[in-house]
Design brief:
Blueprint (H helix, E strand, L loop, with lengths): L1 E5 L14 H17 L10 E10 L10 E10 L3 E9 L4 E13 L2 E2 L4 H9 L6
Antiparallel strand pairs: 1-3, 2-5, 3-4, 4-5, 5-6
């Protein structure tokens, strides 16, 4: 599991006084970037695109001084892609549940995940029951 803290900014808030839906997608992008950066080397940087993303809003998130956490778990590892399950939450509430499918690319076309990438992703996989 990967955890990333987000400090809310006043500009994240919309006219209804809660975090805007588009901002939640930005939160996921920041968390994914951090997740990938932890296994990136100058010789082998990640090149991925988000092929699909599904967001399920659970509760409005109002502005606050304390950060929220984005947790990400690898749900599936394919030949050229992998799927992450995300949650945006605090200690008491789940605000958003989401999934993202990322595809590894080279020159604009899908490419197989490397052994090193697969090994890293396995460390973030959900335990099997």
């Amino acid at each position: 599991m990967h955890t990333y803290e987000i400090q809310l900014r006043r500009t994240d808030i919309d006219a209804q006084q809660h975090v805007n839906n588009v901002v939640f997608a930005q939160f996921l992008d920041e968390a994914r970037s951090d997740l990938l950066d932890r296994h990136e080397s100058p010789a082998a940087p990640w090149h991925v695109v988000v092929a699909g993303q599904r967001l399920s809003y659970r509760l409005p998130l109002l502005f606050r001084d304390t950060p929220v956490r984005v947790t990400s778990i690898v749900e599936r590892i394919g030949t050229t892609s992998f799927t992450l399950a995300h949650e945006v939450r605090d200690h008491e509430n789940l605000y958003l549940a989401a999934t993202s499918t990322l595809v590894a690319i080279d020159g604009g076309a899908p490419r197989p995940l490397t052994d090193s990438e697969r090994e890293y992703l396995m460390t973030l996989a959900a335990p099997r029951a």
